[in-house]
What we know:
Blueprint: H1 3-14, H2 18-31, H3 44-59, H4 69-77, H5 85-103, H6 109-133, E1 141-152, E2 155-162, E3 174-177, E4 186-188, E5 200-205, H7 213-219, E6 225-228, E7 245-251, H8 255-272, E8 278-284, H9 293-302, E9 306-312, E10 321-322, H10 325-330, E11 337-342, H11 345-357, E12 365-366, H12 369-372
Parallel strand pairs: 7-8, 7-11, 8-9, 9-10, 11-12
Antiparallel strand pairs: 1-2, 1-6, 2-5, 3-4, 3-6
Amino acid sequence: xxxxxLQRSWDQVSTYGDQVALYFYSHIFVSxxxxxxxxxxxxxxxxxxxVSALGRIVSHADQLENDASFLQHLGRDxxxxxxxxxxxxxxxxxxxxxxxxxxxPEWDEDLAAHWTAAxxxxxxxxxxxxxxxxxxxxxxxxxxxxxxxxxTMDLTLLKVQPRRPYQFRPGQSVSxxxxxxxxxxxxxxxxxxPRPDGSIDLHVQQIDGGQVSPAVVRSxxxxxxxxxxxxxxxxxxxREGDGRELLMVAGGTGxxxxxxxxxxxxxxxxxxxxxxxxxxxxxxxxxxHLYDRPRLRELAAKRSWFDYxxxxxxxxxxxxxxxKVGTVAAKQLLYGRxxxxxxxxxMVAHTLEQLATAGMQPEHIKYEHFYYAAAGEHTLPAxxxxxxxxxxxxxxxxxxxxxxxGDPGREVPAPDTGSxxxxxxxxxxxxx
Length: 432
């Protein structure tokens, strides 16, 4: 397999833009009409993802065997669409037909052999991962909607309860299909650590023009049944018992997975009397987007190991801290801490830049590539519905509310070197 030949030929094909995906899907639906029902009725979102998805795979063609975790996840996740090994043959045949159509005479025997070898590796890794996971988990989990609370104009908090045991780690995300939008899966982040009753809180931001989030906010009701895919993502998780201090930086509903980690930490303090010190900064455009303010303020008042800072970017009248949350985060004490960053793509990029400029080492900054990647980057071309959070840009946890030009306003708070955290306090076992 010649990775350079794959990349060069794909660069040429991708210049045709939307025509590539349109030809591919037309070919597979005509040659294998039985797979059409596996895809959503509206194909615009799926077609948009085709070029970026295949481009990602091709650009990493020389690493497929050595770093298979991405493809293994795709293989496991595609079980929820009832994808079986035979479907990969249909995908491969239509892919080759598409390449032949756009490459013309350049599609010769050698190039076809390189593409066939690459696709064979992709398909094998995905099928093996799917078959292995079948031994320990279902294709999806049915979950009952326990409550639907519209917290703000465009934000809804869901509580769902899987009917079978559902294992996840704080900081991970789950894909969900709602009955109002069949075959349209979107990613959401549990905003809680695992509970004895198995219930899960999800924060859903309504996106203008979205196909799924408006239906969640407006139509989903208590008593409905949703489907959940297997949990994904590791970079925003932490090892149980890890005592390293945490600087959490959230933009908008990027707060959700950090709340789950915060609850994990709180449980450790309650159970053992020990745990990390935590400073959470929540950045939003306008103060009414601080949708969990009462809860977090109360927690900060009751937990001596926890600090909470609200940051508003677009309201010049706000009397608290104003500016971009990444800028505020970079002003804090960074040495000896791990930063967890979650928000929209621009907010994450800005925060990473600010933290790096302030001297924080990359190995001490955690953020989830999966979630703020370009829409469709983590989808296998032609297999149905596996969407990165293009609906939520990316999932609701990643709505960029804080990365907008704002009035610098009030000075950012001084580094918290003088706070209880900076003093390196360890709270006694009896602390709440």
